[in-house]
Amino acid sequence: MGRIENLVSRYKNHIATPWQKNLAGDQKTIFVVYPETEERRLRARLPLFEIATVRTGHRWKAFDFTRTFSTWMAQVEYKEIYFEEPDSISMKLHSDFLRYAADQLLRALTADDVDENTVVAVYGVASLYGLAKVSLLLKEVVHEIRGRLVLFFPGEYENNHYRLLDARDNWNYLAVPITCQDDMND
User: Fold this and answer.
1) Residue 148 φ then ψ, to 5°
2) Percent helix, strand and coil across the chain, each rounded to 5?
């Protein structure tokens, strides 16, 4: 069995267990952690995660961060200046872009078709690398998770710490990790 199929199996086992209703948003978050080299393979097999979700009686809603930065940048009034002087955009990234990205995810989490039985599956987080910290973004939306937030996370998980794209920065997060390694799951 390949890594992604292994993750699908582990995910299905976890998502099939009865869901507690009165959890904090952090506890309703599931990180599916995989090596960044598996990104294309994971995206090609996302329908397997959806099928596993639906077969366990839950609903699925996908959200992709891949184009979030380009969509935001296209709306920025002084984008030409930022392209000429890229260092001048850093403050805007930490405030405006982070808020924009969080708002996009909030829309998905609070859509009319999302309830306490829905998995909101988030992928494309690698496209946020260097632009916005996933930890800060999650802090903005965690209070709006109705069912479960499943974050497909290209990176590493070790000792309750997550590292996106094998970066030096890491953070401790209370999410449930689903990994390829036997000793790091469940």
Assistant:
1) -135, 145
2) 50, 20, 30
DSSP state of 181: S
Q: What is the DSSP string of 9-59?
A: HHHHHHHTSPPPSS--GGGGEEEEEE-GGGHHHHHHTHHHHHHHHHHTT-E
> What is the Cα–Cα distance from 46 to 38, expressed in whole angstroms?
12
**What tokens does 18 get?**
């009865």
Q: Which helix (H) or strand (E) holds 128?
A: none
135 in Cβ contact with 171 (< 8 Å): yes
Give the dihedral sign, CA 106/107/110/114. negative
The answer to whether residues 182 and 7 touch, using CB atoms and an 8 Å cutoff, is: no
pLDDT tens, the chain, 186 aa long: 688 898 999 999 999 999 998 898 888 999 998 988 899 999 999 999 999 999 999 999 999 999 999 898 888 776 666 666 666 566 566 678 899 999 999 999 999 999 999 999 999 998 888 888 888 899 999 999 999 999 998 887 776 666 665 555 555 566 777 777 653 333
For residue 53, give Cα distances in angstroms to 15, 61, 108: 7, 10, 17
Task: Give the residues across from 30 on adjacent strands.
Answer: 150, 176
Per-residue DSSP letter, 183: G
